[in-house]
Amino acid sequence: MALGNIERMFVLGIDPGLTRCGFGLVEGALEGPETFRAVRAGVLASDPAARVEERLASIYADLLDLYNQVSPDVVVVEKVFFMRNAKTAIPVAQASGVAVALAGARGSLVRQFTSQEVKLAVAGYGAASKAQVQAMVARACSLASVPRPPDAADALALAITYLMVARVESRVAVGT
Questions:
Q1: How many domains is the chain partitioned into structurally?
Q2: Domain holding 99: CATH number?
Q3: What would the pLDDT profile of 71-100 be if each residue is shown by its tens digit?
Q4: How far is residue 54 from each of residues 21, 59, 89, measured CA to CA in Å?
Q5: Which residues contact 76 (CB under 8 A, 6 or more apart)?
Q6: Do 88 and 19 form a contact (C-beta atoms < 8 A)?
Q7: Which residues are designated catalytic?
Q8: CB atoms closer than 10 angstroms to residue 2
Q9: What sign for the dihedral angle of Cα 136, 141, 146, 151?
Q10: How far apart are CA 160 and CA 158, in angstroms?
């Protein structure tokens, strides 16, 4: 897909989780003024008492419905990275796999970024706090307050990261 030719695009960020899966749809462009519009954000939740396969099926159904409603040009999913607790990373990786596979099956361009890459792109500092990133999301999208819940703000940050990175990549591609 030649995204450089799209004037305005819709990017769906997904902050995967088995209990809460954050999503955020941002409208932006690869050229012109660096402006972002938060179109929609929220959380898809699964029942913590349900079996894992039921929870993943619930996330699948909710994401499919969301993808059908918003028809994103690009889907950005947080890349799972863990250093301490594999027990919590595994369910997040499972939810991430559902989001990536579903977007890929729909033919969407899929990108993944680590939380450090998101912090660097959005806040300008790879070790920024969650609060700093969320404040920058609100500022970048001209929102009166930080989006809630935090999973939704994180998903918006993923979408903004894609737009910022893709802008640079498109400039580098033109120069080569």
A1: 1
A2: 3.30.420.10
A3: 999 999 999 876 667 777 888 999 999 999
A4: 15, 9, 18
A5: 11, 12, 13, 14, 110, 111, 112, 113, 158, 159, 161, 162
A6: no
A7: 15, 78, 151
A8: 5
A9: negative
A10: 5
Domain that holds residue 76: 3-175
Q: How far apart are CA 130 and CA 44, in angstroms?
A: 20
CA atoms 142, 137, 93, 9: torsion sign = positive
Amino acid symbol at 95: A
Q: Is the pLDDT of residue 58 over 50?
A: yes
Q: How far is CA 175 from CA 29, 169, 172, in A?
A: 19, 10, 5
* Nearest to 172, CA basis, from 30, 57, 37, 72: 30
Query: Using one digit for the tens of pLDDT, what is the confidence trace for 106-157?
Result: 999 999 999 999 999 999 888 899 999 999 999 999 999 999 999 999 999 9
Total count of residues recorded for the chain? 176
